Amino acid sequence: MSRLAVINPNMSVGFTDKIRDQAQRTIYPHNQVIALNPDFGPDSIEGYYDEAFASVGLLSVIRTLDPTGIDGYVVACFDDTGVDAARCLTHAPVMGLCEGAIRFAQALAGRYAIVTPMHVSVRPLEHLVRKYGADRDCVVRAAGVRTLDFEGENAAMAYDALYQRAQKSLHDDGAEAIVLGCAGMTDIADRLKSDLGVPVIDGVQAAIKMVEGLAELKLATSKHSTYGTPPAKSYHGMFDGFAPAAL
């Protein structure tokens, strides 16, 4: 049995509930999954500023969970918030939604579009796409709605905006598949796939399956160089408890 942790690095409990439901449907029955938020951080992650603060909350959760025996982590944010830092903190494999979704999309389509809620996220995601070597075959587009619009009374409006932008990408960008660029969209992946008639990749499902596979194969994050444990030193002020010397 593998024990997986799916961490939503923002404070939206509604998003975490969606993510937990999707995770429990996605993993194999013999594995265990927990889904949770940090104790502090932004309500949502919309751009670089939010991401910087959310990363600290993410790392605080991993520091608490890791000694309890976690076989793999999913960072349930499409910005892949704090993924590289998290890989330095644990031996267990860590996967963000953007990287996981891109790896799946590459196997299913020659060209694909990431549709994210807000325009402020387009450039950061383009940078991630380039980092993962996928910029030749991937475009990033915004639906023009807030991330939190996919909850509550605005959910129908947000879905329509997502559908219209996805349709436009299929027509204008030559996309052959759509990648959902937000963890809060996880519960509408099947509906959009049915409405569009093309593959729709949900990063939550993709990242979980990748981490689950890595855990089953007993593969761990290399500590040889890039993701090595950070050298001991003092941190000061409110970050005193995060000092690598305490690891």
How would you describe this protein?
- The chain is an alpha/beta fold and 247 residues long.
- The protein has two domains: 136 residues, Rossmann fold (3-Layer(aba) Sandwich), CATH 3.40.50.12500; 105 residues, Rossmann fold.
- The protein is built from eight helices and eight strands; from the N terminus they run βαβαβαβαβαβαβαβα.
- β7, α7 and β8 form a beta-alpha-beta unit.
Summed up, what is this model?
By secondary structure, the chain is of the alpha/beta class. It has helices at residues 13-26, 48-65, 83-89, 97-108, 122-131, 155-172, 189-196, 203-216, and strands at residues 3-7, 32-36, 72-75, 94-96, 112-116, 138-142, 177-180, 200-202. The strands form 2 sheets. Strands 2-1-3-4 form a 4-stranded parallel β-sheet, with helices on both faces.
